[in-house]
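Protein modeling request. Please complete all fields; requests missing the sequence field cannot be processed.
Requester role: graduate student
Desired output: 3D structure, token encoding
Chains: 1
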Amino acid sequence: MGISDNDMKRAASIRTALILGSIAVVFFGGIILAQYAGEPTVGMSVLGFAVLGFLFVAIGHNVFRGRARAGDEAHDE
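Delivered output (77 residues):
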């Protein structure tokens, strides 16, 4: 009983949807926070940190996947 290709695609789609949804929530949260704080620098700071955070997560995910694949290839030889 292995994981089918459709299951892997579905999991990737769900993961992408969750990431995009969380980005939208953080961006709108930053905008709302900026309106309540009265200073645009607050909203821009929140958005900047959100972008950096998501970049770190995306890059870290790809690095981890690359290391896992390299480990699998080493076992295959």
